[in-house]
Design brief:
Chromophore lyase CRL, chloroplastic, disordered N terminus, globular, 269 residues, 25% helix
């Protein structure tokens, strides 16, 4: 005898189906609400400052640029790390630059102070640079064990002369950068080299913590007297084998370093 299907439904089965449907519906609604909240959550002023500070941190090199154009660009090492937090929440970073072959002999040392722009300004993040009261004491700060670095309160006490301030804005959609900005058009007072009376700086933060920085000095007549002319230095995170490439093409230069440095960068004691 063939057995046909039962035309009557099991009431328990129907109840379970309705319960399961209700659970699934609830999960979909909750998931949608969480996704919508994540997508519509606004980035705060301090979020912008945090992103920029994290991008400035780390070890980066201008190697690729120096390989492309060795007559105008050096392979510099950019190194920065957190040094202190101010009472208002501003982040203080220690920063130094050196030639890639002599990373422990920096020729430029600074403090960066990163914080949100004041509400009345049309920008998102303010990055200021300050001189260091005793720069020699801070050499290789980021390379040292933490217990061998100056303490945060000492760092704050060693923040010296204000040098420049750059106001960064979020980049428009479609651009490579995340944030970009510059000093005011008239720059900041500067008398480091070659008769300069003021300097300007441009800064761009890109994805993958890439940094583009362009510093230039001008005389009273508006003539550029120091700094590279072709465009900003491009600093990218370095591969682990950066010091192992003995036959690196940057080992060989077409001009003496002394001649090249005049049009490329400023060396400071």
């Amino acid at each position: 005898m063939c057995t046909g299907s039962d035309s009557k439904s099991d009431p328990n089965s129907n109840g379970w189906s309705r319960a399961r449907g209700a659970v699934l519906k609830s999960l979909v609604l909750i998931g949608g609400a969480l996704l919508l909240r994540r997508l519509t959550k606004s980035t705060t002023r301090w979020d912008h400052a945090r992103i920029v500070a994290e991008s400035l941190n780390g070890e980066k090199f201008s190697k690729e640029q120096a390989v492309r154009d060795p007559d105008n660009y050096f392979n510099f090492r950019w190194l920065s790390c957190p040094a202190a937090d101010m009472v208002d929440g501003s982040k203080v970073l220690y920063f130094e630059q050196a030639f890639w072959r002599t990373p422990h002999k920096p020729f430029r040392q600074r403090f960066f102070m990163v914080k949100p722009c004041a509400k009345e300004l049309k920008c998102d993040v303010e990055v200021s640079t300050y001189a260091i009261r005793d720069a020699e004491e801070y050499k290789n700060f980021c390379d040292r064990p933490r217990d061998q670095r100056p303490l945060p309160e000492e760092v704050i006490g060693d923040i010296a002369e204000h040098l420049t301030t750059i106001h960064l804005k979020r980049c428009e959609r479609g651009k490579r950068c995340l944030y970009e900005g510059s000093t005011p058009v008239d720059g900041f007072p500067n008398s480091w080299q070659n008769g300069a009376t003021y300097c300007t700086s441009e800064l761009a933060v890109l994805k993958n913590n890439e940094i583009h920085a362009w510093d230039r000095g001008y005389d009273d007549d508006g003539n550029q007297v120091w700094g590279v002319k072709g465009g900003p230095y491009e600093f990218k995170s370095a591969p682990a084998s950066r010091f192992d490439d003995v036959l690196n093409p940057l080992s060989f230069t077409s001009q003496p370093v002394g001649k090249r440095i005049e049009g490329s960068f400023v060396l400071q004691e």
